[in-house]
Design a protein that fits this description.
Elements lengths: L1 E6 L4 H11 L5 E8 L3 H11 L3 E4 L5 H7 L6 E4 L1 H8 L5 E4 L7 H9 L3 E4 L2 H17 L3 E4 L2 H9 L8 E8 L9 H4 L4 H4 L9 H9 L1 H14 L6 E5 L5 E7 L4 E5 L4 H10 L13 H4 L13 H12 L3 H17 L7 H13 L11 H20 L2
Parallel strand pairs: 1-2, 1-5, 2-3, 3-4, 5-6, 6-7, 8-9
Antiparallel strand pairs: 8-10, 10-11
Bound molecules: NADPH dihydro-nicotinamide-adenine-dinucleotide phosphate.
NADPH dihydro-nicotinamide-adenine-dinucleotide phosphate (NDP) binds next to helix 1, helix 6 and helix 10.
């Protein structure tokens, strides 16, 4: 019986993870499920999977969760500290699918118990890659990528020597606005940005896909997770989103990972690794698909990609600053305080403001990362206030 914990159970990745577990229910014991404000869903999941404990990230949701689980015998907890506490409960496999930098602290705590951490929360690698992977090494834990592009690279590298890798190419659908003219982007609405042409995901990552901030995070994630030099990592627009990533080797071979738009593939690979289990995903009909298209991304249109290159070159706390400024700017767009194109401007303003602070040389600890994150959010708020 495998003991499993899911951070961010109520989200898109969390629900897909639960879907796979429910299909093989007798082999799993659920330790903890965590969520945010969707208490009805968290309670329903905890009851249906008979979880040991359900945790909401928000103290003000504690009573609602307690009421929803009254009489079930399922423990209830709330708050950021409670998330870290449950990360300490022994589990063989832990899914990290909280959205945003809030996923870092529980992820680190989980690794300290020497477990396997399935990492959807890309922000952990972007903000503190060295700390996360160093913690895994120090405790004999394993971090497995769940982001579809990184799972694809991981799979393409099975049995290969890293010295033979010449380049990694990750694909981008181009998001909701890939066919929009540049002049229309300034007036892009929240509703339009929240709809992805290929993938069904949480709202924040969907908007990040439209601005290519998601791809920017993934370039950094590739650099951090696989230790590949920035100049060997490329992003390419591939509207069909069927090839998730390609690895180029020094004999000229390109190994592509091709699969449907279904996160249950990457989640299932991490859940069953190193084995491959049968998964309930569509089998692609290549003749029906007919053709696949590729286009170089225009960095003038997508400044996020240029900023990601700066982060990779700078290193240190640059990723924490970039991610926090991006999260805050995204809040601003969602709240209607700034327009779509202003998100990248805010992030660039924050980077310019903080880039003289020796970010690249700073030690990466949870404290320094959280301080840099806090500072970047404060500056982002200031820049948004004067617009
Ligand atoms: P969702 O927004 O759908 O879900 C996010 C989850 O995190 C929910 O359970 C939410 O709770 C919880 N949450 C929100 N804020 C906090 C907080 N401050 N503290 C603790 N928990 C919180 O996101 P996704 O599932 O789309 O994405 C999750 C992660 O996976 C992200 O890092 C994303 O980049 C990554 N990812 C997602 C993919 C996808 O297909 N969705 C693909 C690849 C990577 P509640 O809803 O109850 O408020």
């Amino acid at each position: 019986m495998r003991k499993v914990t899911i951070f961010g159970a109520t989200g898109s990745i969390g629900c897909n993870t639960i879907d796979l577990i429910e299909r093989d229910r007798e082999n799993y014991e659920i330790v903890a499920l965590t969520g945010g404000r969707n208490i009805a869903k968290l309670a329903q999941q905890a009851i249906s999977l008979n979880a040991e404990i359900a945790v909401t990230a928000y103290e003000d949701c504690r009573d609602d969760l307690r009421d929803a689980l009254a009489g079930t015998g399922i423990e209830v907890a709330a708050g950021e500290a409670a998330l870290c506490d449950v990360a300490d409960r022994p589990a063989h496999w832990i899914m990290s699918s909280i959205v945003g930098a809030a996923g870092l602290a529980p992820g680190l705590k989980a690794l300290e118990q020497g477990t396997t951490l399935a990492l959807a929360n890309k922000e952990s690698l972007v903000t503190a890659g060295a700390l996360l992977l160093g913690t895994a090494d120090a405790h004999g834990a394993k971090v497995l990528p769940v982001d579809s592009e990184h799972s694809a690279v991981f799979q393409a590298l099975v049995g290969e020597e890293m010295e033979a890798v010449e380049r990694v190419i990750i694909t981008a659908s181009g998001g909701a606005f890939r066919d929009w003219p540049m002049e229309k982007l300034a007036n892009a609405t929240l509703e339009a940005a929240s709809s992805h042409p290929n993938w069904d995901m949480g709202q924040r990552i969907t908007i990040d896909s439209a601005s290519l901030f998601n791809k920017a995070l993934e370039l950094i994630e590739t650099h951090e997770y696989f230790g590949i030099a920035p100049d060997k990592i490329e992003a390419i627009i591939h509207p069909e989103s069927l090839i998730h990533a390609l690895v180029g080797f020094h004999d000229g071979a390109l190994m592509a990972h091709v699969g449907p738009h279904d996160m249950r593939h990457a989640i299932g690979y991490a859940l069953n690794w190193p084995a491959r289990a049968e998964l309930p995903v569509e089998r692609l009909d290549l003749a029906k698909i007919g053709s696949l298209n590729f286009k170089a991304p225009d960095e003038a249109r997508y400044p996020a990609l240029r900023l990601a290159r700066w982060v990779m070159e700078e290193g240190g706390l640059a990723g924490a600053v970039f991610n926090a400024a991006k999260e805050r700017a995204l809040d601003g767009f969602i709240d209607g305080r700034i327009g779509f194109l202003q998100m990248a401007q805010i992030v660039e303003n924050v980077i310019e403001k903080m880039s003289g602070d020796g970010l690249g040389l700073a030690a990466i600890t949870l404290d320094t990362v959280q301080d840099a994150d806090h500072m970047a959010r404060t500056y982002a708020d200031e820049f948004m206030a004067i617009r």
